[in-house]
Write a structure and sequence with these properties.
Elements (H helix, E strand, L loop, with lengths): L11 H22 L2 H16 L8 H43 L15 H47 L4
Helix pairs in contact: 1-3
Length: 168
């Protein structure tokens, strides 16, 4: 068999190509629609539609044009936005995973946290909350100890100064 026909043996190639094309289209579209020119174009369409209202006597067809157009655009944009959101979330998750894995002393179980179910996430959340509370208590205890030590050393310094002074 030649390399040209190898794609027939692997059906995932057929799925991958449309998915990759969609991803590329979604990324390019999201980049374009996020620009001011896209907003200005949409605003221009709405203004032109509003101006043509009297020409069409504000008919049902005139209203149907904008309703249909906006519905189609909204419907398609939902999928593009979701694709972009999924892509961004995965990229952020990968970056965070890399940081967790690179951190000395970090718990590596957090690197794959996105794969946990809701119950496991809630349990882990409670564990983290308890650790955070313990850390806060520890910090507050150290601050209190530091203030007490600071007060005691100031009091000791005053006592030492008063003892060192000769009385006349």
């Amino acid at each position: 068999m030649t390399k040209k026909n190898n794609h027939r043996l692997n059906p995932t190639i057929h799925v991958l190509v449309p998915a990759q094309k969609f991803s590329e289209l979604a990324h390019a579209t999201s980049q374009w629609t996020g620009q001011p020119v896209a907003f200005l174009l949409a605003l221009t369409v709405v203004i032109v539609w509003a101006i043509t209202g009297p020409l069409f006597d504000y008919s049902d067809t005139w209203q149907l044009v904008i309703n249909t157009g906006t519905t189609i655009v909204t419907f398609l944009m939902v999928f593009l936005i979701q694709n972009t959101q999924n892509r961004d979330t995965l990229a952020i998750q990968l970056k965070l995973s890399e940081l967790v894995l690179a951190m000395k002393g970090a718990e590596n179980k957090f690197a794959a946290i996105e794969d946990l179910n809701d119950e496991e996430l809630e349990k882990l959340h409670e564990e983290c909350r308890m650790r955070a509370d313990m850390t806060l208590e520890h910090i507050e205890g150290r601050k209190k100890q530091s203030r007490n030590t600071s007060r005691n050393s100031k009091g000791t310094a005053r006592t030492t100064k008063s003892i060192a002074r000769p009385t006349s």
